[in-house]
Fold these 3 entries.
Entry 1:
Amino acid sequence: MALRLPKAQLPAELGETMVKAFGAVFEPTEVLWHNPEVAVSNQEFAGRIAAWHALDESLKSFAHMAVASLVGCSWCLDINYFQAQNQGLDLAKASRVPDWRASDVFTPLERDVMAYAEAMSVTPPTVTDEQYGDLLDVLGPAAMVELTAYVAFVNMAARNNIANGVSSQGFSDSCAVPLAGRPATGGRPA
């Protein structure tokens, strides 16, 4: 996939901050910078979401990667796997998210969270009362609200990247455990 909009010139300080933290400037930010108000609002909201802590970080990471795999956002999958490594999350598990249904490394809760993330991400959404209620019973109201809002934001970001032609920048290439490929069904729930 090629960018559908050329990269805009970022303020030098912003580019330097990204390079210092991640080794590269994020292409989604460079594309969004054609409208700095949109780019800054997106970054601010992403920053606020990162500060939420009612839901376990591993569950958020798995939910994000499940959405990315399902909708086909290679950039999201790439950066989230890279961040999982940097956050000290279980890479053996994180590497299997693209093919989580066929993998035996996930707990029932992790599977339920990824299934919920996918159910929110298909069109139309297929979340059931039972699915929501089961997760609510285990996670509690605060974490359930966080999971739902988080998955909604991830969908916005992933679909924005796909529509703009943003694809993987190779962040996950530095991870010790290779990232699993998407299943032949394109990540769609069976």
Note: The mean pLDDT is 92.
Entry 2:
Amino acid sequence: MTNNKKAKPAPNKGGRPQAISPDAKTLKTITGLGKIQATTRECAAVLGVSHQTFIATMQRHPEIGEALEVGKEQGKVSLRRTQFRLAAKNAGMAIFLGKNILDQTDRQDITSSVTVDVTVTDARSKLERLIARQAGAGANPVGAGKPH
């Protein structure tokens, strides 16, 4: 006797199907986007979903966020490798890497000579001259004279 029963399909849980699933193809795409330092908004656009959907999917499936982070780190290593290759041919790149990786700095010798002509005026003598001028012009202000 053979068993002619068909396997029952998985029960439908309802709701919309997920727009992104963490399958191998999607994870490879996300890793590639990470390599070029793509933002989550850019990843969402490439995958054809809203930014909110992409973020929600990353929260439900941590492997998506991990794939993006791994891709970003691989991209940094690739960029660094390219910079070091360029440093062999380009002095500017060698200087840049020396400053940023080896904490090297440019030594700047700044020497300047400054001549300043400063005239200091005594406020008290200025006030006395003003009072003398007023007295000479015939003005006799109340309380004029030497200060107490």
Note: The CA atoms of residues 98 and 135 lie 74 Å apart.
Entry 3:
Amino acid sequence: MPHLNGFDVAAQIMQHHKNVKVIILTMYNDRKFVEDCQKMGVQGYILKNSGVDEVIMAIEAVVDNKKYYDPKLTKKTTTNQHTDDFS
């Protein structure tokens, strides 16, 4: 996505389409990105290395109006090496 990142796209979708639910599928497990998505109101956040069952659980949870954040995301998430992607 030239000139945009997934976070920006999610924000635009949520701003212009209030009924759309957003699940972020990403390689970023940086706490800042997770917290920013939570603050923005993203309903789901899962890591790309998640299995199919995990993705299905996330989709089902969000469809049921629940939040789903990858259980691999803990307070000990790592610092992301790609912070320039979100500048």
Note: DSSP finds three helices and three strands in the chain.
